[in-house]
Write a structure and sequence with these properties.
16% strand; five-stranded antiparallel sheet; alpha+beta; MlaC/ttg2D
Length: 208
């Protein structure tokens, strides 16, 4: 086999591999992924319900094991930091520190919410395929007849879905946290390190 033919075949094989990788998508549909995550989390909450009261460490452990792995924390971090996630305003080390703090705060907040779990049920809303790179799946959590819609915006990460943003009862958490972080930066005189250290995301009250 001559050199030219080998080179041509090599390029052909490489191109085919790259094309396959570029167009590969998660095997699960977005609703199936969200249902899997929700069912796994709720199953753990039900199984350990008797241990959760007055035991925040146990609740945080459940959240860390059953929810945290499915969150695209890097994408969430960029969304929340906004323009401050660029090299013009922050370093890679500062962004990594923010991501760590932000992840831990979310686990703390989710843990506090799930500690109150008392066998609530949920229903998955009909899903409309839009071919968007960030599909949205909505769940209605039912607590004693009161429904709370939670929408999960997904992203394909390494051929698997992950959550990049969450909307709870009409509140876009990514946008709300971004406004809160910008306000924190302002309160700290533009000092990113201080803003990262003092940032406390609040999903219920939009801090100004």
């Amino acid at each position: 086999m001559n050199t030219l033919l080998k080179h041509t075949l090599g390029i052909s094989v490489l191109s085919t591999m790259m094309a396959s990788t570029a167009f590969a998508q998660p095997a699960e549909t977005p609703p199936a992924f969200v249902k899997k995550v929700a069912d796994g989390l709720i199953s753990r909450l039900k199984a350990d319900q008797g241990k959760l009261q007055n035991n925040p460490a146990a609740v945080k452990a459940i959240v860390r094991q059953n929810l945290d792995p499915y969150i695209d924390s890097q994408a969430f971090t960029r969304l929340v930091m906004g323009t401050y996630a660029t090299n013009q305003y922050s370093t890679a080390a500062q962004r990594a520190k923010f991501e760590h703090n932000f992840r831990e705060t979310l686990i703390e907040n989710y843990g506090t919410a799930f500690a109150k779990y008392t066998n609530q049920t949920y229903s998955l809303r009909p899903y409309k395929e839009t071919n968007s790179k960030n599909p949205v799946v909505t769940i209605d959590f039912n607590n004693k007849g009161e429904k709370t819609p939670v929408s999960f915006q997904l992203v394909d990460k390494g051929n698997q879905w992950k959550v990049r943003n969450i909307n709870v009862a009409g509140i876009d958490l990514g946008l709300q946290f971004r406004n809160q972080f910008a306000a924190t930066v302002k309160r700290n005189g533009g000092n990113i390190d201080k803003a990262i250290a003092n940032f406390e995301p609040d999903a219920s009250v939009d801090k100004k």
